[in-house]
Amino acid sequence: MSTEIPAVQLQVSPEEWQARVNLAAAYRLVALYGWDDLIFTHISARVPGSEHHFLINPYGMMFEEITASSLVKVDMQGQKVMPSDYQINPAGFTIHSAIHASREDAQCVMHTHSLNGVAVSAQKNGLLPVSQQSSIVMSALAYHDYEGIALRDDEKPRLVQDLGDRMFLMLRNHGLLTVGGSPADAFLAMYLFESACMIQVRAQSGGGELIHVSEQVQADNRMLAQMVLRGMGGALAWPGLLRKLDRKNPGYAE
What we know:
- By secondary structure, the protein is an alpha+beta fold.
- The protein has a single domain, classed as Class II aldolase/adducin N-terminal domain (L-fuculose-1-phosphate Aldolase).
- The protein is about 45% helix and about 15% strand.
- It has seven helices and seven strands.
- Strands 3-2-1-4-7-6-5 form a seven-stranded mixed sheet, sandwiched between helices.
- Strand 6 and strand 7 form a beta hairpin.
- The two termini are about 20 Å apart.
């Protein structure tokens, strides 16, 4: 199928267009950092001003190809509300619709199958407090047990309950998920999550005894985590990330 997509900027509000641009950038940044899994994971963003519509990737396009115009707008039943030649990933719809419907603050939901993330998700003890990054993530981390490919509606309540009000969710034997107030915030959270997993895998591969961050320091880091993750962190890093993307893979804002 051709990846030539008609421009939709004049068909949507300025606020929706900006959300599309930022979401498309997030997709390309995930590809740039090597966290993508061909076409099989997903990032979604709520359409500004709407409680029932969100944007998600066209199923079949590589993350590095996605543009603001190519994103598919769907409702909470998974029905397209704007024309698109593409369908959406059913598993992506199940996971993302559950979270968008239950969390008003979930403006963006990011899910990856990165090798480091899946490796740590398969470990019985999950993420370990062996780095500054992990201590920040663990301040807002939840776990959800693997129930198979996420296609069943009856998994939604358990997924939502396990996530609660947390920002990070480790999907056991599956991958990583972050929730943010914007694509910038969700991306920054995923950067920390992925970094924590990568550091853990590398530290374990060294074969030596690991030093755990003390419980007191972990507690002290919780306040820092709130400042970094729910404050200015995403907004500060995002312009630089977009400049990086403009150098490496421009065209997302089309």
